[in-house]
């Protein structure tokens, strides 16, 4: 089946999902979708063969249970992708056209990426008039799930080597934000940090440990679970910068941690964990 035929069938399913019964006939669909009656009739026959439409009453065809499930599945995909494309600046006509194609042919993994991006856009839009807020206030606008964000760790004070902390090498990038019931948790995966011994030339390996984060003026221990270290998103203070497509949410929290590799030690001075949304 050609792509245009697939898209027409999708549009028909969505009409059955959202339009009045009087529209969901060959004549009504032909007028609404701007397609010939023969083409609409062939699409309806195809949908009937797949068990998605019941045409036992030709004057009033309806979705079957399987059709309702399929229509709801693609409606979520189409709406999410449409919002994503509009936020990225695509005009409405092309966005609507492309949303149908993307909804049909995006993989589940690809759609989840788009869905996460669209959720971020919604959160940004909802917070557009706020200059500052904490991580849980942002999570209140996100659906339950796991989101991936870039981060950097800075030294508290700049020195000759720059202001990036060596702690950046001690974690997998990006980090995760896990949201459940409007509450969030930042999760960092510790990875091996290696240095060569100056005395023997042998490679020494260590991991970041004893991560602590600041909340209410005090440092608290992060939760440790294997290689994962986590702390509440509520501890992260966000600033709202820019507008529209250029808007970013910049979050930061003071942290402390330790890492020893042989005789080389990461200083336990305060660092600043920053996350960009």
What does this structure look like?
The protein has seven helices and 19 strands. The chain has helices spanning 3-18, 26-33, 37-49, 65-87, 92-105, 108-126, 135-139, and strands at 53-54, 62-63, 132-134, 145-149, 151-159, 162-164, 175-180, 183-189, 193-196, 203-206, 209-215, 218-221, 223-225, 228-232, 237-241, 248-258, 260-261, 264-265, 271-276. A hairpin with a 7-residue loop joins strand 1 and strand 2 (62-63). The longest helix has 23 residues, at 65-87. The chain starts with a helix and ends with a strand. The mean pLDDT is 87.
Helix content: 25-40%
Largest β sheet strand count, sense and barrel closure? 8 strands, antiparallel
Strand content: 25-35%
Query: In sequence order, what are the helices and strands, one letter per element?
Result: HHHEEHHHEHEEEEEEEEEEEEEEEE
- The chain-level structural class is alpha+beta
Q: Overall mean pLDDT score?
A: 87
Model regions low in confidence, pLDDT < 50 over at least 5 residues: none
* Structure summary, number of beta strands: 19
List the helices and strands and how they pair.
Blueprint (H helix, E strand, L loop, with lengths): L2 H16 L7 H8 L3 H13 L3 E2 L7 E2 L1 H23 L4 H14 L2 H19 L5 E3 H5 L5 E5 L1 E9 L2 E3 L10 E6 L2 E7 L3 E4 L6 E4 L2 E7 L2 E4 L1 E3 L2 E5 L4 E5 L6 E11 L1 E2 L2 E2 L5 E6 L1
Antiparallel strand pairs: 1-2, 3-15, 4-7, 5-6, 5-19, 7-8, 8-14, 9-10, 11-12, 11-16, 13-14, 15-16, 16-19, 17-18
Helix pairs in contact: 1-3, 1-4, 2-3, 4-5, 4-6
């Amino acid at each position: 089946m050609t792509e245009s035929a697939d898209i027409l069938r999708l549009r028909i399913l969505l009409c059955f999902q959202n339009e009045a019964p009087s529209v969901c006939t060959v004549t009504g669909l032909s007028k609404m979708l701007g397609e010939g009656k023969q083409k609409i009739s062939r699409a309806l026959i195809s949908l009937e063969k797949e068990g998605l439409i019941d045409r036992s009453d030709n004057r009033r065809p309806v979705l079957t249970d399987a059709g309702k499930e399929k229509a709801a599945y693609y409606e979520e995909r189409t709406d999410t992708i449409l919002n994503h494309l509009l936020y990225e600046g695509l005009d409405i006509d092309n966005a609507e056209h492309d949303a149908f194609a993307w909804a049909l042919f995006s993989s589940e993994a690809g759609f989840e990426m788009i869905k996460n991006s669209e959720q971020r856009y919604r959160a940004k839009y909802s917070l557009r008039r706020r200059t500052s807020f904490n991580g849980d206030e942002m999570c209140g606008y996100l659906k339950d799930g796991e989101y991936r964000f870039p981060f950097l760790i800075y030294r508290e004070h700049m020195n000759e080597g720059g202001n990036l902390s060596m702690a950046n090498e001690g974690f997998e990038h990006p980090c995760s934000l896990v949201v459940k019931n409007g509450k969030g948790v930042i999760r960092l995966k510790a990875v091996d940090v290696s240095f060569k011994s100056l005395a023997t030339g042998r490679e020494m390996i260590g991991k970041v440990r004893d991560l602590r984060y600041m909340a209410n003026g005090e440092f608290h221990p992060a939760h440790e679970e294997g290689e994962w270290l986590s702390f509440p998103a509520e501890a992260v203070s966000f600033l709202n910068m820019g507008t529209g497509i250029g808007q970013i949410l910049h979050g930061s929290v003071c942290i402390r941690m330790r890492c020893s590799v042989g005789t080389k030690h990461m200083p336990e001075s305060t660092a600043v964990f920053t996350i960009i949304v």
